[in-house]
């Protein structure tokens, strides 16, 4: 499974990249707005840190405008993947962009039928939002299982990118179901590393070693 960081915070990205385990980054207008910086310079800086895919989202909702914005974003750097909302004009744009060789990440997916349409349009990634489904008492991971099954049934190349990840259990469940990518906040990436028994074990080893050295 690939690990993407869902953030536009350069400090978080640099720290995650230093682990050597970061495969890419996903951003969106909300995450960029939190940073209080101009979008394009921020995007270029992120591309200079991470060698993997960097998702940048269009804000247009009409076909021709989505295409124009997507082409401009893709021209910034070879690693840019254009995020496009799962709407009719968005799918139409994905098909066109796919034919042009521009990678796309179809976002705001909440059903298997939507995921099927995105794959048929040629999306590079599909982003099901599992946390938001959990928030309204739906089983987000059930959606991941359905999408993975459908894609395997028909050999679609579209990668399942699990989004709206809220905690480490989401990551583990997605890995068990065979999802291709998990994109997560920095705090979740850190939580994946830690375990209280690991910490207590280290403390005990160090205490025992200190006792041994004092003899």
What can you tell me about this protein's structure?
With 215 residues, this protein is α/β, with parallel strands linked by helices. The chain has one domain (2-213): TIM Barrel (Alpha-Beta Barrel). Helices cover 55% and strands 17% of the residues. The protein contains 11 helices and 8 strands. The chain has helices spanning 10-18, 29-35, 39-49, 63-74, 88-99, 112-121, 130-135, 140-154, 168-177, 186-193, 196-213; strands at residues 2-6, 24-26, 54-57, 80-85, 104-109, 125-128, 159-162, 181-184. It is globular, with a radius of gyration of 19 Å.
Architecture blueprint of SSEs:
Blueprint: E1 2-6, H1 10-18, E2 24-26, H2 29-35, H3 39-49, E3 54-57, H4 63-74, E4 80-85, H5 88-99, E5 104-109, H6 112-121, E6 125-128, H7 130-135, H8 140-154, E7 159-162, H9 168-177, E8 181-184, H10 186-193, H11 196-213
Parallel strand pairs: 1-2, 1-8, 2-3, 3-4, 4-5, 5-6, 6-7, 7-8
């Amino acid at each position: 499974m690939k690990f993407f960081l869902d953030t536009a915070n350069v400090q978080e990205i640099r720290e995650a990249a230093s682990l050597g385990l970061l495969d890419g980054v996903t951003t969106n207008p909300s995450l960029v707005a939190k940073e209080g910086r101009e979008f394009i310079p921020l995007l270029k800086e992120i591309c200079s840190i991470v060698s993997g895919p960097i998702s940048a989202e269009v804000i247009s909702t009409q076909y021709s405008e989505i295409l124009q914005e997507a082409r401009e974003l893709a021209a910034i750097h070879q690693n840019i993947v254009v995020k496009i909302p799962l709407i009719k004009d968005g799918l139409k744009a994905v098909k066109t962009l796919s034919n042009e060789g521009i990678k796309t990440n179809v976002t705001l997916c909440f059903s298997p039928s939507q995921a099927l349409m995105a794959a048929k349009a040629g999306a590079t990634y599909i982003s099901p939002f599992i946390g938001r489904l959990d928030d309204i008492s739906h089983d987000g991971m059930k959606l991941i299982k359905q999408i993975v099954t459908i894609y395997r049934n028909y050999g679609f190349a579209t990668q399942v990118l699990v989004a709206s990840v809220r905690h480490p259990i989401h990551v583990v469940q997605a890995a068990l179901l065979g999802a291709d990518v998990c994109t997560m906040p920095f705090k979740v990436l850190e939580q994946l590393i830690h375990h209280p028994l690991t910490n207590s074990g280290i403390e005990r080893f160090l205490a025992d070693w200190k006792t041994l050295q004092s003899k």
